[in-house]
Amino acid sequence: MRFRKRDQSRKKATYVMGADLQNQQWRTPGNNKKEESNPLINVEQFFRPSCCAILNRRLIDSQFFNPYYEKSYDEITLPPSLLDTPESMILNYYSILREAENLTTRFSGGCGTVGWARLPFPIAYNFLTKGYQRKMPYSSYLSSFEGIGHTNLIKLYKLPNPDHSEPIQFFIELETIHGTATGTSGFQYHFGTVSVIQEDGYYKIDAITLTGEDFLCAAYHGWRQRGEDVVDIEYGGWCKLIQKRLPTKKTGYVKTIDVKGTDGNDYRFIFIQLTNDTDVLVSQLMKNRHEQWKVTHIDPTKCIENKIEE
Length: 310
What we know:
Layout: E1 15-16, E2 19-22, H1 33-36, H2 62-65, H3 86-97, H4 120-125, H5 130-135, H6 138-143, E3 148-158, E4 168-178, E5 186-199, E6 202-212, H7 227-238, E7 242-245, E8 249-251, E9 254-261, E10 266-273, E11 279-287, E12 293-295, H8 300-309
């Protein structure tokens, strides 16, 4: 995948919404005027907010929350039905967090009580594995939601896993309403992955990574927002890997690009179209000699580095 892990030895983790916040990555090697210019792009498309349906709409009402009033996270036992399958568990998790708020004097908004206030947080914390909880204590988990007043899950996509191994990974996109220093709330968007494993017979969240979306980058900076251009330039131009690119297949916000490789292998690049209309690469697959797809990872920046060394 294209989401890079930060160097933990040099940089302390920053948590946002119970997730490890990643820096937004932009390709820099090999830039030139030809690559940057694309007069056919309508930049207005990059400024638009999401029209996606909200996915975390499971019935989470006062009847659900009543047993958890004034309970700390370590006094809560989740009903097994909330953890029965990976996808259902994630939907339940974000349905509980939908109207959770941690507005503060630094980041305020609304006009009175907002949603279920902080009541959902200790419940949601129990969706995390013991290992993830050790990495992120409850105090860090709660503070990671500072300024959040509302959370909508708008994209959920299970990443290919031909080997059926753990962790099971899902791509997500979140639309959140944040408080601000001026007291007027506004929208923000994040994308990333949720890793799921089985613990004590139930599915739980073992890691979440998120990256913030910027609505001014793609509108003014060239080709990187379009999956076809990324494949052609990075894997074709930089790595000389593409013999032929097949027609793009698009289903909803999922874009699949297949290519015939110059090395005799077939490759598949899967992109997700974000709310800011940028295509982000979420999976690379290679078909082996047994006609089976396998997850692979080709870093195009290495192709540039190798050329420089030569």
